[in-house]
Amino acid sequence: MTISRDLTSRVAAIDEEIRSVLTQAEPALQPFYGMMLYHLGLDVVRPGTGKRLRPLLLVLLHEAIARDGQRALAAAAAIELLHNFTLIHDDIEDQDPTRRHRPTVWSVWGVPQAINAGDGMYAASRLAVHRLRDRGVPAERVLDFAALLDKACVEVCEGQFLDISYESRTDVTAERYRAMVARKTGALFSAATEGAAALATDDRELRASLARFGADFGHAFQAHDDVLGIWGTSERTGKVEMNDIAKRKKTLPVVIAFERASPRLRAELEERYSPPAPLPPENCDRIRDILDELRVHDAIEREIGMHRERALHELRSVRELVTSEPLRLLEALVESATGGSAAQAGATRTA
User: Fold this and answer.
1) What is the rounded CA–CA span in Å between residue 198 and residue 137?
2) How many angstroms separate the CA atoms of 47 and 249, rounded?
3) Of 60, 99, 225, 248, which alpha carbon lies 20 to 30 A from 52's?
4) Residues of the chain with pLDDT under 70
């Protein structure tokens, strides 16, 4: 995903809010918060990691509804901190050595400190939520937003449980995979989009519309990310090439391949996936060749396009979103983050 110059100031404001949540004057504790800032790419003068997709959604939608993005910055920080708490733990669970072109927290400081840093980031996301009352958001709306985040957090953990359990199975259907993605990825997208409405208005229909927008956007984003996890280069993704295959991840392309494969190819896929992770390079290469033979990439692109268009249709149909610039930026964000027509050739994988 690329970040346009129009979004730079908003990203900078989100990052400044996150920094203020993670500021600690006591010298002995600065390394603790330093791990979090490192993971977020905020330990350098010019951060180049993480595009703040979910908090940008929240800020832009709040701006489109209430003509005020600044008031929602604490909520945006909360969403981003919650998301990255899950990523720190996800890197440990997957034993990923890199994320966003940098060594992961656990690979630098060890697993115990990384677990603690992730837990600390979760707690910090709760502190960010409490800042909303200081910004003049009514207490009832703050509680509604907090409930959305709590529900999303549980759903992400449920999705992660399913995702991990699928690694040892070859009977995962596309339907089961999509249900997992709705939790692991879609829940936070919907929390960001519905959360903007929850903070800005009491309109329940608007909240429902924006939740649907977030769910479809999240599905398209994850499917595009799955494509990059198999066909993307290390330079583009910031991870080891074909990392999802090597880790035996049953992402959407693999699930569809199992469903499309003839008995002979299915048996070969099962054999290639039988060794423990990480799979040897020759297995990864052959699995990707089989996916290409089955034209899986084309099928995934069609699914991405369908959900992208559904998301954009939902967004454009919401009559309460009357501010033109945030809407324009939201549409471009959806296109760019899902590999659509507005995406640039050099766009990078964003988590």
Assistant:
1) 10
2) 30
3) 248
4) 1-4, 45-50, 234-240, 322, 342-351
Integer Cα distance of 12 and 14 in angstroms: 5
The domain locations on the chain are 5-337
User: What's the pLDDT at 303?
Assistant: 96
Element (H, E) at 103: strand 102-103
48: its two tokens? 């180049």
Instruction: Give the SS3 label for residue 102.
Output: strand
Residue 200, both tokens: 């800005």
pLDDT at 50: 63
- Which residues, including other chains, have CB under 8 Å from residue 286's CB and lie 6 or more apart? 268, 272
Among candidates 327, 304, 297, which has minimal Cα distance to 314? 327
Distance CA 347, CA 267 (A): 36
One-letter amino acid of 297: H
CA 125 to chain centre: 16
Give dist(CA 151, CA 268) in Å, integer. Answer: 40
Residue 37's pLDDT is what? 97
Q: Which residues pair with 99 in a beta bridge?
A: 102
Rounded CA-CA distance 101/272 in Å is 28
Residue 319 confidence (pLDDT): 78
Tokens of 124: 């910090």
Instruction: Give residue 235's identity as a one-letter amino acid code.
Output: E
Residue in 178, 175, 174 with CA at minimum distance from that of residue 258 = 174
Element (H or E) spanning 303, and its range? Answer: helix 296-317
